[in-house]
Amino acid sequence: MSDTAPRPTLEAVAARAGVSRATASRVVNGGDGVREPLVARVRKAVDELGYVPNQAARSLVTRRHDAVAVVIAEPETRVFADPFFALQLRGISKELTAHDNQLVLLLIEGRDDHARVGRYLAGGHVDGALVFSLHLDDPLPGLIQHAGVPTVFGGRPGWSDGKGGPVYVDCDNRDGARTAVRHLVGLGRSRVAHITGPLDQTSAADRLDGFRDVMTDVDPRLIVESDFTPAGGEQAMRELLDRRPDLDAVFAANDLSAAGALRVLRERGRRVPEDVAVIGFDDVGPVAEQTDPPLTTVRQDIEEMGRLMARLLLGRLDHRGGGETAGNLVSTENLRIVGTGENSEGAPSGVVLPTTLVRRASA
Amino acid sequence: MSDTAPRPTLEAVAARAGVSRATASRVVNGGDGVREPLVARVRKAVDELGYVPNQAARSLVTRRHDAVAVVIAEPETRVFADPFFALQLRGISKELTAHDNQLVLLLIEGRDDHARVGRYLAGGHVDGALVFSLHLDDPLPGLIQHAGVPTVFGGRPGWSDGKGGPVYVDCDNRDGARTAVRHLVGLGRSRVAHITGPLDQTSAADRLDGFRDVMTDVDPRLIVESDFTPAGGEQAMRELLDRRPDLDAVFAANDLSAAGALRVLRERGRRVPEDVAVIGFDDVGPVAEQTDPPLTTVRQDIEEMGRLMARLLLGRLDHRGGGETAGNLVSTENLRIVGTGENSEGAPSGVVLPTTLVRRASA
DNA sequence: GCACGGGGAGAGAGCGCTCTGGCATCAGGA
DNA sequence: TCCTGATGCCAGAGCGCTCTCTCCCCGTGC
């Protein structure tokens, strides 16, 4: 059982088909420049022997791996409480498998993991990397740049690489926040509070900016920095109610913290949305639909963002295949392309997807 | 940027250290049989050049990949709504990285994906596989067995491979269910209902068995088959209330469906736990803690199960390293080992972890 | 009819590594 | 002193594949 029959080699296929190894290789890799009868013979031999190319041998010479690393930095345990990453992973996986690429998952839990991941990427095991949830002080971008691995970031990074900017995919956080807050204002609410995410992440900072765009001259006591978790949302909500018992709306920076806020509101006897209207951000199904009342929230197409990241990365890897640009990589309808053409391949440095407000019962 | 300096080879390291490639290789791989001064010189050269072994070249000759596939079969969209898999992934990732193994994630979404995964596993890209959430009719086990890849299953598979049984890790579903139901009975409830999971999965079937162990002669109308989702839980709860409006307790086969049931109960004006006591299963934090009221549930250490799966698999891969058995692979305290010694390596065919009841407010 | 060109196939070199012999070198016993 | 047996290192083969280079064969043009 542990010793299965040795796998057939290309040599064996060639012998069976009565051709040279080179011809067999050509057929296996697409069959250009080989005449039909030989192609058929080789194909037949491949099927009969159950030949599968040895990826290690192939990589050794081509220096390609057809594998992409997905790096998720997870300083806290947050990642896995939030379906957000799971959805992105799904989008990524779909796109990668559609292009015969493998997904190597690298989870960063502790400080030394950064070094490990850096070493892995530098080791040239993968052709590229998709990197998530960076904080501003994260050492990872430096390691990646040093490793020289083509990378696409999930969420706008808060720094520049001096070459036209890192390539990333994000949703329009600021505009989404504006839409949410405008909706609250349109409901006649004037004392709108904001529970932020960790402000060292651009998504949280951008949402705060959007909030401020609409709520100019807001009472600073109506803004509490939190951490995207339900528990953090609870705590922030308590603080807000203590500071400004008269608040009549809350915009939480994500659904998870909105769920925490809802619980505290109920606990304190505030009716939602009658007394306090609540809006979240993300629209991650299991959370937003299951709260009481169901959460009005800003929707971003998370899975699509994952898919887009993968597509963008694969496009960059294909530069040998000749100049793909954003235009044919991604359907440009409905999305904004930022900083086009600065970097060497003429690819966009950022792709920003629109958001939509999903009305449920909480606002 | 796309063309970085060529990575240093072992040859370069050897040259710099003034030794042969073979000696350099020995040092890189542990350094046995090389005298100290040479070891130091090689190490120094490695550091100075920033040498990282080329995994492809290494795999080509060793036939090892130091990579493990994690296969998640996800016929519905369920996987990603449920933090369950995320937690297992985390445990697996920790254990794998601790042993310098990579995690290749294979998601199965549609029917043809089975073939793709089967081909990948047969292609010898990974040393082993961890496989999840199999349904009884799943073609995957057959493909895996055919591919001859060492595999550990998450959750007891519902079939046998005729060699002492497939190796798996599971929690004691049946006993957990018994504990839950006994707790409800101990609370004075006599009309206990059960919302099952999909009964083609052993976890759901085992929990039902445990329910029946305690509720002998139960009214069949008190049992509704569901699907582990919140929406399914809602529907099941409605059906139960219609059939038996007098029910006074519900044991849901997982937390997600319990959350759905709670919502319906509230909607129908039943107080929890006063009118109806509710218990879930899994104790996945974000769900169980965030329901209203917080959910009493059966806890299984999901992350530890993941870790155990990885450890078990790595142990099986290490048979060349000389007969590891369950005893030193896993701490045997608190866990049950099933069907020991039937298969060739004397490894356990199943490892079953205990569950504990976590009391919160719902029962 | 002969030179020439182009396309299709094969031979062979290597990708970077591990690992098996085999050859020194040195210690210890006769 | 010579032989034996470790011990430590090197030389070289080869893992399975791709890809260039070369050769051959056939069709074409003058």
From TrEMBL, chains A, B:
Keyword Cell membrane: no
GO molecular function, one term: DNA binding
Entry annotated with the keyword Transmembrane helix: no
Domain of life: Bacteria
Domain Rhodanese: residue ranges: 122-203
PROSITE patterns with a match to the protein in the record: HTH_LACI_2, RHODANESE_3
Protein name: DNA-binding LacI/PurR family transcriptional regulator
SUPFAM superfamilies registered for this protein in UniProt: lambda repressor-like DNA-binding domains, Periplasmic binding protein-like I
Alphabetically ordered keywords of this record: DNA-binding, Transcription, Transcription regulation
InterPro entries: HTH_LacI (IPR000843), LacI/GalR-like_sensor (IPR046335), Lambda_DNA-bd_dom_sf (IPR010982), Peripla_BP_I (IPR028082), Rhodanese-like_dom (IPR001763)
Start and end residues of each HTH lacI-type domain: 8-62
